[in-house]
Amino acid sequence: MREELLAVIEKNSRIDLKELAVILGVEEIDVVNEMAKLESEGVICGYHTMINWEKTSLEKVGALIEVKVTPQRGQGFDSMAERIYKYPEVDAVYLLSGGYDLLIIIEGKTIKEVASFVSDKLSTLDNVLSTATHFILKKYKEHGTIFKKEHADERERITL
Amino acid sequence: MRNMLSDQVVGLKPSGIRKFFDIVSEMKDAISLGVGEPDFDTPWHIRDEGIYSLEKGKTFYTSNAGLKELREEICNYQERRNKIKYDPLKEVLITVGGSEAIDMGLRAVINPGDEVLIPQPSYVSYEPCAILAGAKPVIIDLKAENEFRLTAKEIEDACTDKTKVLILPFPNNPTGAIMERKDLEAIAKVIIEKDLLVMSDEIYAELTYKGEHVSIASLPGMQERTILINGFSKAYAMTGWRLGYACGPADIIAQMTKIHQFAIMCAPTTSQYAAIEALKNGDNDVAEMRTAYNQRRRFLMNAFKEMGLECFEPFGAFYVFPCIKEFGMTSEEFATRFLEEEKVAAVPGTAFGNSGEGFLRISYAYSIDNLREAIGRLDRFVKKLRAEKK
Lengths: 160, 390
Description:
The complex is a heterodimer.
Chain A (H helix, E strand, L loop, with lengths): L1 H10 L5 H8 L3 H13 L20 E9 L8 H8 L4 E6 L6 E7 L2 H12 L5 E8 L5 E2 L2 E2 L14
Chain B lengths: L6 H5 L6 H9 L4 E2 L11 H12 L12 H15 L9 E4 L1 H13 L5 E6 L5 H7 L3 E6 L10 H7 L4 E6 L12 H13 L3 E5 L24 E6 L12 E4 L2 H14 L5 H13 L1 H25 L11 E2 L10 H12 L1 E2 L1 E2 L11 E4 L4 H22 L1
Parallel strand pairs in B: 1-10, 3-4, 3-5, 5-6, 6-7
Antiparallel strand pairs in B: 2-8, 7-8, 9-12, 11-12
Helix pairs in contact in B: 3-10, 4-10, 5-6, 5-9, 7-8, 11-13
């Protein structure tokens, strides 16, 4: 049940628990217990809402920042990552293989705000060797969700 | 001018519920539970392969039987899923949907007056195809108390010395019934005893929710007397690509290929390239869609239980077949009133044969949100009818 449950709530975390139990073919109490377990194990880390900010009147600027750092003795990249992810404006931090080490996703109110984060905070950190900032121009798809409106059901009403 | 029409074609029974379908198509704001095709788009990697084949200029006829690589992949699939071995060169024909395979298969084996056993309720094309092939269709009325499975006794009772072919339409449209191994073993005995040929329409095989689908061709002594029909429409959500296939004894496939060559030439080339990709890399997509269908199936069964609507639990295809006899009206009356009063279209069981009387086919090729809305309306409608009866 575990994997199927996760697959369902990953797409719809607001699903009614009773309905969730029905479609999984189990008892509601089992769903409740399993979800509590998944939460305490840290498998379920939160129930967020996906928002297409572009459709609101709020201005937001997003950027991907590639960062090269010097790994720390005994800690590898973890302590550097931690110093960076503690900034609340940082949305995501990944350690990558390839041409650079850390990929940071950041969201700010203005280009200036993002720029000042990079120049004042990020690049001045010890052990940060270089940064490359890419501003996001448009989001097409995030977390498996396509932002463009899905097309309507084009099937005939009745087919045998 | 003379009457130019074929008496035989004119004589084919038109669907008795044409009028109902006309009302449905005219009603603008109705929601539907009446669709017999997946709601999913064809998985992108499959579509992409079709597009790529066009870019490469693969726009010519293929060989009559279909691309060799596709026939090989079909054989791999049949061995992997059903443990049946077919020779890709002699025992496979790629067709324009499973429907063409039904037509070609019957035409390849029927002599005038041969009898074809057709269990009903079932897909609408078996009977007319049998008639057009020159056969006499003999209907077997499947029973709700058997969960619409076919029994050995029913075959035995329907057999005469002219019986040649048995159509085996499982997992079944419209009932959702399946035939499990024990059910198939029970009928295989009679089939061999009566020396029948089986046309096993397994187009919904991948949509089985209880154990694994079993093909009758995999039972001892059955492969040599079975035309296995399958296709890509339901498993891979590829209805519009029009692609199916038949596997069977070489002598039958050879005759089917001959008619196919004259009538069709070959199945659409683009679809064939896409289908190779589907068979090679599509297992996960099929599993995902099956999981989604199964969730909806449970959702509907639970909803029927809660509203006290009688319905056996179907384990195949994407249909449920609730019984509406308690309301004392025909399937068509029920469906018409449901459409008019709640604006929901569902198909009367009688569209699939007289034995569908008293039942309604509800498709769950819809999102749960869509089903929830439609079921809410069904609940209201059922309550209203029960109140009327009092």
